[in-house]
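Ligand-bound model needed. magnesium ion.
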Amino acid sequence: MPPSEHVLIGHTDHDGPIATNERARVKAAAHYKGRLRRGQFVVIADTANHGLAFLGRIVAGPFYPDPNSILADVEIHGEINGSMAQGTDSRPTPGSPVFEMPAAAVSALIGLGGDMMLGHLAGHADIPVTLRGDSKEVLPRNVGIFGTVGSGKSNSVQVLVEEASQCGWAVVLLDLEGEYVDMDQPMAMEGLIPRLQHFGRQPRGLPDFQVYHPVSCSSSRSDSRPFALRLADFESSIIAELMQTNRAERNALLDCIDHFEQKAQASTLRTEADRLATLLDASPAAKVPYTLQMLRSRATERSARSTESMDFVGLGSKLQLLIHAGVFDQSGLRGLDMSELLRPGRVNVIDVSVANDTVKNLVTADLIRKAFAWKTCQPDGAPTLVVIEEAHSFMSREKVQTMQATLHMLRNVTRRGRKHWLSLAFVSQQPGHLPPEIFELCNTRLVHTLRSMHNLDALMATTSDVTKELWAHCPMLGTGEAILSTPQLRRSIVVSIRPAASRRRFVR
Ligand SMILES: Nc1ncnc2c1ncn2[C@@H]1O[C@H](COP(=O)(O)OP(=O)(O)O)[C@@H](O)[C@H]1O
Ligand SMILES: [Mg+2]
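Prediction:
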């Protein structure tokens, strides 16, 4: 980088009595006002040592000590070697010229690049923030999108979904509020169109898009397709947890399931491959060992045999609640068909906005399990992104003790999913309520404004690659701004996320 091509912003000043290793002071003439901005990366060409250049970043100022000059503090990050910075045991000599680092050099330094256009570096409209959709270091490392209400999470979800699908990812979006069901339409916020165009994007609906809803729950989209759940598709321990059974009810449940499993085992020898094939067979004719109704009948038959440790009566009433939900084992209705959903570029929204919490959680568990099963069977299938909105309501710190089986499944899928190009994205306004295990699994993170210390602490404790200085920014981020950290980047940054190109309901 020959400094002659760089814009000069000032010169290093003589050190004061409280000079430190990491800081240098820059002094500029008053007419340079506007060039010294916090966050700006700079290159300092040492006057005393030809060829020695320091990388720095303006962290304080601009200050105006007198009418003729401007001061700013630069944090010294290291010595420049090619496009990288390495550690240094020195500091710039006073009087060394300080240059603005060109956009391309900043991008290279940070490690930006790829097909997914997320936005631009905050304060630098000329530095696009792009990530690689074809890298195992980004989406397959699982994604966390956090921030308080109104901070821009849903817009970020849309951007991520638009970009991932354009890169050939199949996407399934679990929509808790029915806000994503119009993403096949272009956005219609006139005021944001110039900003969208700045990123080379136009208002545009998603080309391959379908909405689904659990039968009996309806969707506001008239062309949404209903699907049914099959109780036998779940691991028994997960049904027990998600139905919130107590110990005695759980024992009764396992007893009933065992009864039918043994029968099925006797009639057809079921190997692991058979089980997987049944799990992924979405047709209503798929051979399942039991249905919700069969379990309910069995519980009723056995009710007289209830003991202190086996409560068939309690189980019966919990199963009855599930029957009421009307979502399980509906004859003639298909389940979620992974071969239909997980095609390259396809975006599927599962509208669970009118489902109760148990159904929402069971749909989530069903989706994750089947997507994982499909990806292990189809190694050449499309890379797949599953987005879970309001993740804290599915899996919370408070519930973690009683949801070990569900957490185990999540852990298994997030860890092993990477190998199979399956990525989970957790979205939450309450990261402080998520079990720490969950966000430890999210290596690619977008953290929007968070003001409660409870939520911030939880993130700070598990994100080592974000500096203290950057965290201090977090409560002050504007709408649509977020701290981005991901294994692709050499350092964490603040991004101004681009507006979504597709439409969302309920946006003001
Ligand atoms: N990157 C952005 N650019 C422009 N407007 C944005 C951006 N992010 C969010 N907004 C607007 O801010 C409001 C709140 O954003 P939203 O994504 O709904 O927040 P959250 O999901 O965190 O509650 C919406 O009106 C949205 O259109
Ligand atoms: Mg939202």
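Residues 117-228+335-497 form a domain with the Rossmann fold fold (CATH 3.40.50.300).
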